[in-house]
Amino acid sequence: MEINKIMETIKSYDTIIIHRHVRPDPDALGSQGGLKEIIKQSFPQKQVYAVGDEEPSLNFLIRMDEVEDTMYRDALVIVCDTANAARIDDERYQLGAKLIKIDHHPNVDEYGEIRWVDTDASSASEMIWEFYEHGKDAGLIMNDRAARLLYAGIVGDTGRFMYPNTTKKTFQYAAELVAYDFERSELYAELYSVEDKISRLSGYILQQFKLLPSGLCTIRLTEEILDKFAVTSDESAQLVNIIRDVKGIKAWVFFIEEKDKIRVRLRSNGPVINGIAADYNGGGHPLASGATVYSWDEADNMTADLENVCKNFEK
Ligand SMILES: [Mn+2]
């Protein structure tokens, strides 16, 4: 089993460097930081690092470590929550002695010598809890900081236990996690408080979205609009779910204009949309994907393709 191999491999390395995907979300940081804490707690003599660009809005979860290139020699590199190698934050993941992938996205890019991919897991953080449970008799130790990080990751990727990726297992693990000592209400406040400019942009989105007869909903955020609200493309990502509950909506797409491209965020309440994301320079989960187009004409083509998927979708 991969999970045993990962345990054995971790034991055999003195230096372990943990990566995750670019533009990290709570699950990327939660799984990365949770795993780091567990390894540090369980094997105090090992050097364990979490690397990647800081995400200022999530600094309350974890801060990143500085690692010299030379430290990768003889190091084990573990990448969490990242489907394809191109999305790994910090290309130096290639410099390590061995590479492990731990992820819950479809295994489209089989990077790494050891791969543990569980698409039934709600989140990579859920998998890290499972890793701990599996290894606790063999010496793995959980602590409050790890529990807080893993809980944040699970909450993030399940939309507070609401999305269909939430399973009985997810609730069981969450129940175990809340037994540790961390302030849950504080964590929720940090995760979900919004700046006033974001609230104002959400007002714009709720006024402007188009619900097409197919059940596809489209939103266009031009650079002009983003400038008007003083919101960046990245920041606008936190609003992607605000139209989820519109009656009759099957899937929805945000086209977000950036300098040299249009970023596409796709979500669905049923129709499988990651195939279309793959047709447009992207990919992801069946019901949550991202893509990139390079003109509004291309955006229109993608809209037409998505409409077809929605029209053909039967409950
Ligand atoms: Mn995830």
Question: What does the model show?
Answer:
The strands form two sheets. Strands 6-7-8-9-11-10 form a six-stranded mixed beta sheet. The mean pLDDT is 96. 38% of the residues lie in helices and 18% in strands. Strand 10 (283-285) and strand 11 form a beta hairpin. It folds into two domains: 2-191, inorganic pyrophosphatase (n-terminal core); 197-311, Diaminopimelate Epimerase, Chain A, domain 1, CATH 3.10.310.30. Helix 3 packs antiparallel against helix 4. With 315 residues, the chain is of the alpha/beta class. The chain has helices at residues 2-11, 26-42, 124-135, 144-158, 168-177, 184-192, 196-208, 223-229, 233-236, 274-279, 296-311; strands spanning 15-20, 47-50, 76-80, 98-103, 114-117, 210-211, 216-221, 251-257, 262-268, 283-285, 288-293. It is globular. The chain contains eleven helices and eleven strands. Residues 27, 81, 104, 123-124, 157 line the site of manganese (II) ion.
Explain the layout of strands and helices.
Blueprint (H helix, E strand, L loop, with lengths): L1 H10 L3 E6 L5 H17 L4 E4 L25 E5 L17 E6 L10 E4 L6 H12 L8 H15 L9 H10 L6 H9 L3 H13 L1 E2 L4 E6 L1 H7 L3 H4 L14 E7 L4 E7 L5 H6 L3 E3 L2 E6 L2 H16 L4
Parallel strand pairs: 1-2, 1-3, 3-4, 4-5, 7-8
Antiparallel strand pairs: 6-7, 8-9, 9-11, 10-11
Helix pairs in contact: 2-3, 2-4, 3-4
Bound molecules: manganese (II) ion (MN).
